[in-house]
Structure to design on (569 residues):
């Protein structure tokens, strides 16, 4: 019952957000698209990060997997939906990317890489690789060694890094940073781990609302909390190193990226992000009572997810003309609602019974139907 | 092992540690040691000590140990070291000898951050090491328990429980029933 009502609520949110974006697209398509891209950067990171964590668990094992693997698999199941949500960006490339507008691209020296046909071909390549890996990850029941895990992690590292450069960094085609891809991937890992922990911790309720087939004990919470500390440190290290190097060089073509992102309201956003995605979760999690308590861990995970969404907006929106737009939260709502519907459906079905748990068509059929609902609403 | 007759001596003893006579039981397996520790606690033995090659969970609870203030000491050292390290650089670069480097502000805090972190980590390490030694009563060049044959195995593959002799009581018979000797267990007397 609980599951069905939250499913309906997610679809309602998806419809409301989708309607706002659709209405806005008639008035100001550029604003809708930049908000859309900024929020998609968050939502597409969850299935990608989840896939990396699944493969990592296949290789290393660990008791945290018993709690986190079911929600991670449900997140991977939302990958086709996330890729579908990328289509509006791919169709209206010149609305967002300066290099796709011939008059602005003329002075660019990296046109051999940043041009529309090559960009679309790369996007198609990433999509095919990711869908095949997701299929390989979900095909198996989830225990035992997966031969795809090691090559899958290497492929994900490469394609994820290139996709971050293509989709996110190239909104400012004059600027480049070699650490950027890994920085984005570390954020995706952090987001996926936070959502999986949140789902595992909340799902293990004794009142029958459990969705993961078993309660999460303090030991597992302890391990998940320790992994979250590692993810927070990795993300903070990579993000701060990029800032430190750019600050030390102080070159006009590099520092402008930070000048835009540290001025005015975006500067406070950066401070807030460093606190909410770095210092506060770190200090909370090194104190072991928080790490071991259900409520404490859930609160830290919710904070991390909110801060990560804000970080994605901060990474993309200041680089585009117009800056912040309210279509970013609207798009986040639309995508989040649709994604949550897939996620909950998948988790709920798993909890309901073992037999239909891995209906092979489930993760392909469901997402295809969802954007329709969002559009009609 | 054969138990030597107990001889009452004064409790000042040699060494810096246990000034009490006692008994040592060596176990091949940590679970057997924990089981024996539970039985000893139930039988009313309160002055106990465990020596093991690695930290065994539950031992602290069974021995009734309070949490040491070690984490607080380390945290305080980190904060102090961080503040001190940052101030050292701030004072040098912005107050004492201001130098314009690359047009950056004098208080170029991102550039100070790595050294601040390193100094903070160094302070945490040094303070943590000293506090750890103090909490463990280290260094201790000699302790009567070193005379127990096979004590060095506590840092290899044996799990040892030291049981203090109780004032005016002969617990040898009780100990022999509580600790099933022979099944991966051996018992030795520790002189004071």
């Amino acid at each position: 019952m609980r599951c069905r009502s939250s499913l309906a609520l997610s679809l309602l949110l998806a419809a409301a957000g989708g309607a706002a974006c659709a209405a806005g697209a008639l008035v100001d398509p550029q604003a809708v698209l930049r908000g859309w891209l900024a929020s998609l950067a968050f939502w597409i990171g969850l299935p990608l990060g989840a896939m990396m964590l699944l493969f990592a668990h296949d290789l290393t094992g660990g008791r945290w997997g018993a709690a986190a693997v079911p929600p991670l698999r449900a997140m991977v199941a939302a990958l086709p939906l996330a890729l579908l949500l990328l289509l509006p960006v791919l169709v209206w490339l010149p609305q967002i990317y300066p290099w796709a507008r011939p008059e602005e691209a003329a002075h660019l020296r990296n046109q051999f890489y940043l041009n529309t046909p090559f960009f679309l071909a790369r996007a198609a390549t990433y999509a095919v690789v990711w869908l095949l890996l997701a299929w390989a990850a979900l095909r198996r029941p989830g225990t035992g060694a997966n031969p795809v895990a090691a090559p899958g992690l290497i492929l994900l590292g490469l394609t994820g890094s290139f996709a971050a450069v293509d989709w996110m960094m190239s909104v400012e085609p004059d600027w480049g940073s070699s650490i950027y891809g890994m920085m984005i991937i570390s954020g995706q890992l952090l987001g996926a781990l936070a959502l999986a922990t949140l789902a595992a911790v909340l799902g293990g309720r004794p009142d029958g609302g459990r969705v993961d087939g078993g309660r999460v004990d303090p030991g597992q919470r302890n391990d998940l909390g320790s992994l979250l500390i590692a993810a927070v440190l990795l993300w903070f290290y990579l993000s701060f190193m990029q800032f430190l190097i750019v600050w030390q060089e102080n070159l006009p073509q590099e520092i402008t990226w930070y000048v835009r992102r540290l001025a005015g309201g975006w500067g406070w956003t950066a401070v807030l992000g460093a606190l909410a995605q770095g210092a506060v979760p770190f200090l909370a999690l090194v104190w072991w009572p928080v790490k071991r308590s259900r409520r404490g861990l859930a609160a830290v995970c919710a904070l991390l997810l909110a801060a990560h969404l804000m970080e994605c907006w901060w990474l993309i929106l200041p680089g585009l003309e117009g800056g912040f737009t309210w279509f970013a939260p609207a798009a986040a709502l639309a995508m989040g609602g649709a994604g949550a519907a897939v996620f909950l459906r998948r988790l709920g079905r798993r909890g309901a019974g073992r037999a239909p748990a891995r209906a092979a068509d489930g993760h392909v059929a469901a997402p295809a139907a969802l954007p329709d609902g969002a559009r009609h609403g | 092992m054969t138990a030597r007759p107990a001889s009452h001596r004064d409790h000042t003893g040699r060494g810096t540690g246990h000034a009490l006579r006692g008994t040592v039981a060596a176990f091949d397996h940590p679970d057997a040691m924990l089981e024996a520790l539970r039985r000893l606690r139930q039988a009313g033995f309160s002055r106990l000590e465990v020596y093991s090659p690695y930290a065994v969970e539950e031992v602290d609870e069974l021995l009734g140990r309070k949490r040491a203030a070690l984490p607080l000491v380390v945290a305080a050292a980190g904060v102090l070291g961080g503040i001190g390290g940052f101030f050292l650089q701030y004072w040098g670069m912005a107050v004492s000898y201001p130098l314009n480097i690359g047009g950056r502000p004098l208080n170029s805090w991102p550039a100070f951050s790595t050294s601040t972190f390193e100094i903070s980590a160094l302070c945490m390490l040094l303070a943590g090491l000293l506090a750890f030694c103090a909490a463990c009563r280290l260094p201790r060049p000699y302790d009567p328990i070193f005379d127990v044959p096979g004590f060095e195995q506590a840092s290899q593959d044996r799990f040892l429980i030291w049981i203090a002799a109780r004032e005016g009581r002969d617990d040898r018979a009780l100990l022999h029933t509580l600790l099933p000797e022979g099944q991966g267990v051996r018992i030795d007397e520790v002189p004071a």
